[in-house]
Amino acid sequence: MNFRALQYFVKLAELKHFSKAANACYVSQPTLSTQIRKLEEELGVSLVERAPRQVMLTPVGEDIAHRARHVLRDIEHIKDAARRSRNPETGSIKLGIFPTLAPYLLPHVIPVICKRFPELRLQLAEEKTEDILNMLDQGRLDAGLLALPVDEYGMNIEILFEEPFVTAMPASHPLTDKQTICLEDLEGEELLLLEEGHCLREHALAVCALAGAHERVDFHATSMETLRQMVAANAGVTLMPVLSVKPPIPSIDNIALRPFDPPSPSRTIALVWRNSSPLDGFLRKLADSLKLDPALLCEP
Q1: Taking Cα atoms as reference points, which of 190, 258, 197 lies closest to residue 223?
Q2: Fold of 162-266
């Protein structure tokens, strides 16, 4: 079975367009079409339903596309094993990280990684948790920085640190009279939260459930920065991970931060990778460079 034909078919399954798939594979459209027809002839089935304005996969085409992705992933593993067995510290690592962690963690860990692995090329992909897990499964990422829990099937997980949450509120809010916040203080509060798909939203909802608070349903932020600006504009109260309010992140006027009474609500950050990865030994070394000084995680 032709390896290139599988690549072309998977790309067509992704883009649902012959011309776009051919451009993405750096071949002409006739070349791509010919290879897919040869694949159909070899398998004895129709993989693609060709219509004038759209491309649809047949049911067996959907199944084979799914299996082909895993075949291609395994071939990449073979290439990786051969290439990186020489010295993984001088190769490249594709690392996924979710948006409510990336801008706050990376300034602390990138200098450490560069010093320890000066020849390593770090390729970062900032994606939501679900997308990172899918990219890991497809072999498009080597590892992901994620907040637990995640689906652990087929994955190695190295816990890096526990990051507490703090309460962010307008400076005029009555709770600013308190030095620390207990969950009961948030009872009845309307919290500003991120939109669907962010793991931080799920953590905040869990705190809401414990505290008797509720979310503001007419507004969902797309980023942590939007949440901060809404709090500064007296729009409400929110929860923020402690790294997001530590230098080098600049402070914003009219925001008061208060830590929680112990035990503080928190999120567990971990490095996650496939247990079949040829980089297992190196990724465990990398995990050590991603663990933070506990002083950085102290509440303000």
Answers
A1: 197
A2: D-Maltodextrin-Binding Protein; domain 2 (3.40.190)
